[in-house]
Amino acid sequence: MEQETTWQWRCDIEPDGTVVTLLGEIDMAGADHLRDVLRKAIAQATRVDVDLAQLTFIDSAVINTLVAAHKHAADLDVRLTLVNPTGHVRRVLAVTGILHTLGGTPSPPDPPA
């Protein structure tokens, strides 16, 4: 597991693709490093799933990074999909339309507070 100040990531190479698991909170300070992590995964696979189950915060810089990574993957004929978003991350991605655009399927809604 690699660690940044507020977030961590793990890349698991599987027979049918790579899973990039993101944990913690990513904001504009981590967006460039996230871009590098995703580009490396895209370069090594035909399918990349970005597992967001343990990601608790993203901002607009991260959304831009995810969209750019999706475009980069598509240009290389690699499928990049967001999976398992929850809480704040799911809401932000759903409201902005990014979840649907990047082929992700939303997790079940969080229970009311």
Automatic annotation (TrEMBL):
<comment type="similarity">
    <text>Belongs to the anti-sigma-factor antagonist family.</text>
</comment>
<dbReference type="Pfam" id="PF13466">
    <property type="entry name" value="STAS_2"/>
</dbReference>
<dbReference type="InterPro" id="IPR002645">
    <property type="entry name" value="STAS_dom"/>
</dbReference>
<dbReference type="InterPro" id="IPR058548">
    <property type="entry name" value="MlaB-like_STAS"/>
</dbReference>
<dbReference type="InterPro" id="IPR036513">
    <property type="entry name" value="STAS_dom_sf"/>
</dbReference>
<dbReference type="GO" id="GO:0043856">
    <property type="term" value="F:anti-sigma factor antagonist activity"/>
</dbReference>
<feature type="domain" description="STAS">
    <location>
        <begin position="19"/>
        <end position="113"/>
    </location>
</feature>
<protein>
    <recommendedName>
        <fullName>Anti-sigma factor antagonist</fullName>
    </recommendedName>
</protein>
<dbReference type="InterPro" id="IPR003658">
    <property type="entry name" value="Anti-sigma_ant"/>
</dbReference>
